[in-house]
Amino acid sequence: MNIQNMILTLQKHWSEQGCILMQAYDVEKGAGTMSPYTFLRAIGPEPWNVAYVEPSRRPADGRYGENPNRLYQHHQFQVIMKPSPDNIQELYLDSLKALGINPLEHDIRFVEDNWENPSLGCAGLGWEVWLDGMEITQFTYFQQVGGLECKPVSVEITYGIERLASYIQDKENVFELEWTDGFTVRDIFGQPEFEHSKYTFETSDPDMLFNLFSIYEKEAHRQMEAGLVHPAYDYVLKCSHVFNILDARGAISVTERTGYIGRCRNLARKVAKTFYEEREKLGFPILERKEKLGHE
Amino acid sequence: MSKRNLLLEIGLEELPARFINDSINQLADKVGAWFSNKKIEYSELKMYSTPRRLAVLVTDVAERQEDSHEEAKGPAKKIALAADGTWSKAAQGFTRGQGMTVEDIYFKEINGVEYAHVKKFIEGQDTANLLPEMQSMITGLTFPKNMRWANEELRYVRPIKWLIAMFGNDVIPFSITGVETGNQTRGHRFLGTEFVLSSPDNYEEELLNQYIIADADKRKKAIQTQLENIEQENDWVIPVDEELLDEVTNLVEYPTALYGRFEEEFLEIPEEVLITSMKEHQRYFPVKSKDGELLPYFVTVRNGDHQHLEKVSRGNEKVLRARLADAAFFYKEDQKLAIDDALAKLKNIVYHEDIGTVAEKSSRVRMLANLISERLELDKETQTAVDRTAEISKFDLVTQMVYEFPELQGIMGEKYAMQKGETPAVAKAINEHYMPRNAEDGTADSDAGAVVAISEKLDTICSFFAIGVIPSGSQDPYALRRQATGIVQTLVNKKWSISLELLIGLSLNLITEAGILKRTNEETFQDLSHFFGLRMKHLLQEQGIRYDLIDATLGSGLRDIPGLLDKARVLQEKKDEDGFKESIEALSRVLNIASKAEVVGDINEDLFENEQEKLLYRKFLDAAKQEEEGIAAEAFYQLLESLKGEINNYFEHTMVMADKLDVRENRLNQMAMLASLITKFAKVNDINVK
């Protein structure tokens, strides 16, 4: 099965479970969790079920397109369900079956893995799912987001698309994966992988990036003061991405690193709190509508 | 009375493997305690646990609680009885409150006063009526990490999926987080189904039909047997790491061991790296030849049966290949790193906010290590090795391999140091300076390794004490206790008599100079002495030394550590010998009276008034000389023992607290000097001779 069909299959599967199918969010980010469809929507009492593909940029993992296992930018298929459904593990296993993975022919295990992202004030408990020893999915019950206790708890399922595809297509090299008929990952992402790696490690301008960080940070705070969560959050994401490039570039010493992570965390906490307050002002509209539906 | 079996099963989403053993023990303890507390008889309590369930089966549970009597205490006799001998209002009120009458009262004396008592008969209740209390045993389990899920308030290890609570074939009704108890359980995720259990008696058997080996011990044995079979089939040796075996046992409900292989070219990567990669990342068992050579194979345990093993093996091979390719890449990259460049990077790594960078710490450790090796008068070559080891001991922390596998710190250091042209002594010492790595590990073998190991640990302990981070109760986040024990063990194994108090002082001075100290030097030193004293006490207790002998030996202070241990052992040996009591009493008498000396001055032989004084003095001078020249613990004890006669004669004929001031002071001086010699062995007056 090529990657395109994998995505279509997963979309169909989770759509049938009542998930809103969304497109990737258009600001650079390191993980699907950082999309506002996850980070913000996991906050507060309103229900939320969503599935989307998220291109995730990890500047430090850039290898000029030469390493068969590492990518500057890979893809995650992200599912969020809030509150976490009772049969979520079964729903997940069904999605693997839909991808043509027959559990009886493999070894599928849920191995403890707790997830923590201090720079976003996030923590969760769960597992990594092993398919014949390969970690193919991160399965997490969010406990805290942006420093706020999650109530109700969301479950997050993150499939590593390329990982899973390399298993399904039995390929050793990520660049040889078939995206769709006649097109491989190399055809589509080979050049950008090389260029982004070169940019990250060689031609990026740390001074400019440090500047940008400060500008973005300031703007994020300013928009939050105005109660505009989403514009503010876009700038938080930009800060985070700039930080990741600087970090990969080796421009941030260990001592400074703690400081920058602290600044990102402050932003994340503030944005989380602001989002909650703004939704509350609106009367948590989704919650209200669902309750009404429940009563009818 | 008829009896039934009781079954309690908590069905969960996959529990973390490392929590399972403790969790099931807790549940069994709670259930066992509940039955004895409730006075309900049973024959046997069996535990079952898999990643998805914790269960206890209690056999032959009595249908009813035992009847019991409960004694209640009422008013004192003089209050219970009115002046005319009739029962007072107080007595009547008491019995009424107990649901009894005054006729039931009897008197019983408590601390010399008689009180009214009644004995109540309590009829045992039906067990079935009490069993819903089991709910609190389930919710009362504690786990190292808890979570919430959906809309539930309960914090628990993982979401609860089903609950079985059966007394015979009856379901004991209760619910937790909306999950009602029942008699339905679940078989293997893929090979089994959900099914109704026919009765608690058939729990293990019916689960086995559904591909669940519920008994963890049986599951472990099954894995061991399978590993042995693979060994025999292939003529291999599979060294089984007990910890890994336990973890794997708790990762599967129905184990099937299988093996796969990897490309031979990966064998060029150091063995430790290959093994760590297989064990830590993949939970694989590495495979060796009969000659102990690592082979390009691995064994994994699948949660399932024998179908499609080929496919599972191929998948695992693919994963391992990618992992090892990574390791090979790191190994190659690390070859390019020069030690000096690595050391420069250490300046950027913060060891602890209040303690500074790893580079700063390393430079303190180097100074301390050099001071120690000088004092130990190690040969020139070793001193050079100590200096170089301490200088570069942390360089491997910035290698990619150690970044990826932190547990290989030191091990990679040794390998890379050899490749980069360091002497074998330095390379070995780099690895050894982390020893002992845990309670089971040995201490550093080479002198250079031992000196740096002691210095590094001492600097860590003293730094944390200097900023006020002191272990208390269960709080010891930096494992300072273990490191202190490591220092002591290293000194003992190396038979180094260097004073521990001196070492602490040296380290603390370096830390003070570095400006780390947040408290006074004196206060920190006292806390450190106390801390090391407790560690020594613990160590001596483990050796089975009697508590008062420990106190007596530690009363000499923390100087020569191996000597201190020897002295404690000598006392422990001698304590039951004839004459021990008399010797200790005589020596203690000296210590007791010496404590009256306010200032110790020189002894004026002209002031001696009797032969016994002179004789004891001569004996003392001789003993002090022998001690100064160095003496083993056993001989030291015998030497002190040999003073017994003279001491006793001395006290028989001499009044220490003489009226004449100069004579009195002279005698106190003599006692004080003798006492200081005795105390070098032990503070003997702490010994309990009864």
UniProtKB/TrEMBL annotation, chain A:
Broadest EC class assigned to this enzyme: ligase
Keyword annotations from UniProtKB, A to Z: Aminoacyl-tRNA synthetase, ATP-binding, Cytoplasm, Ligase, Nucleotide-binding, Protein biosynthesis
Reactions catalysed, as given in the entry: tRNA(Gly) + glycine + ATP = glycyl-tRNA(Gly) + AMP + diphosphate
Pfam families with a match to the protein in the record: tRNA-synt_2e
Protein name per the record: Glycine--tRNA ligase alpha subunit
Gene: glyQ
Listed GO MF terms: glycine-tRNA ligase activity
Gene3D superfamilies reported for this sequence: Bira Bifunctional Protein, Domain 2, Class II aaRS and biotin synthetases, domain 2
Organism: Mesobacillus maritimus
EC annotation from Swiss-Prot or TrEMBL: 6.1.1.14
Family, similarity comment: Belongs to the class-II aminoacyl-tRNA synthetase family.
Localisation per UniProt entry: Cytoplasm
Superkingdom of the source species: Bacteria
Quaternary structure annotation from Swiss-Prot or TrEMBL: Tetramer of two alpha and two beta subunits.
Automatic annotation (TrEMBL), chain B:
Stored PROSITE patterns: AA_TRNA_LIGASE_II_GLYAB (PS50861)
Cell compartments where the protein resides: Cytoplasm
Keywords from the UniProt entry: Aminoacyl-tRNA synthetase, ATP-binding, Cytoplasm, Ligase, Nucleotide-binding, Protein biosynthesis
Reactions catalysed, as given in the entry: tRNA(Gly) + glycine + ATP = glycyl-tRNA(Gly) + AMP + diphosphate
Domain DALR anticodon binding: 585-680
GO molecular function: glycine-tRNA ligase activity
NCBIfam families: glyS
Subunit structure: Tetramer of two alpha and two beta subunits.
Protein family per UniProt: Belongs to the class-II aminoacyl-tRNA synthetase family.
Protein name: Glycine--tRNA ligase beta subunit
Origin organism lineage: Bacteria, Bacillati, Bacillota, Bacilli, Bacillales
Gene from which the chain derives: glyS
